Amino acid sequence: MEVNKDGFYKIKWFWNILKNGLFLFGVRNQLARFGFDVDPFYWVLEGASDCEPPKIKGNPSDYELVHLEIEEIEVVRKNIVGSDQIPRILDFHSQIKCIALRHEGEIAAFTLIELDHFNYNRMVFHLKENEAYLFHMYTFESYRGKNLAPYLRYQSYLMLRDMGRDKIYSITQYFNKSSKNFKKKLNARNLQLYINIIIFKKYQHHFVLRSYNT
User: What Å distances lie between residue 93 and 64, 86, 116, 131, 186, CA to CA?
Assistant: First the structure.
């Protein structure tokens, strides 16, 4: 019997959404396709609070911390189930660094680091010389459950501090449970809760729903 690989990967992608508590996150993405994008998200400060250095489950020596070129990470992105949901890294034109964990020649997890400016849903953020923005933390399916995301994120803090970047920010989408969980392990702090609304890709407005005491 011939297997429809495209259908299989779509089912697997949807199952990952359900398993990781991302159903509402997925619904929001689907509504956005029809021109109604309501995106609540947290503006998060990372790396400012002390935490226990995360440890990889298993043998840490099996993993190598590496820096990837943009062209390399674009090849990796294409192997992600549901990769059409992730912008092409080559579409970015500012200062981006990528660090990853490699296991036996295979990329197990990666995260991207912005050092200049970035655009999030038409909101432009400009970074100062002591600031950095972390995004696209991704662990491949076969490596999940090994605590790689917190470990890699923590390594990015150390690298950025050595560069003089002591203010480290990220965005956590409100419905993204997995992102919330791994940042919680690192004592990341929510600074503000925003909501961004875009209707038919034409009308856009964002405002702060809540600010948190830090």
Answer: 27, 16, 10, 18, 29
CATH code reported for the domain at 5-211:
3.40.630.30
SS3 153: helix
Mean pLDDT (whole number) for 147-158: 95
Residue in 95, 61, 81 with CA at minimum distance from that of residue 11: 81
**What letter would DSSP give residue 70?**
H
Residue 22 has pLDDT above 60, yes or no: no
Q: What pLDDT sits at residue 59?
A: 92
The mean pLDDT of 21-31, rounded to a whole number, is 57
Interstrand relation of 131-139 and 167-173 (parallel, antiparallel or unpaired): parallel
Instruction: Give 74-86 pLDDT, tens digit per residue.
Output: 777 666 654 444 4
- State the burial class of residue 173 (Cβ atoms within 10 Å of its Cβ: 0-12, 13-18, 19+): middle
Q: List CB contacts of 205: < 8 A, sequence separation 6 or more.
A: 196, 197
Tokens for 18? Answer: 């359900």
Mean pLDDT computed over every residue of the chain: 80
**Nearest of 205, 206, 179 to residue 193 by alpha carbon:** 206
Q: What is the DSSP string of 154-204?
A: HHHHHHHHHTT--EEEEEEETT-HHHHHHHHHTT-EEEEEEEEEEETTTEE
3-state secondary structure 78-90: CCCCCHHHCCCHH
H or E element in which residue 117 lies: strand 117-120
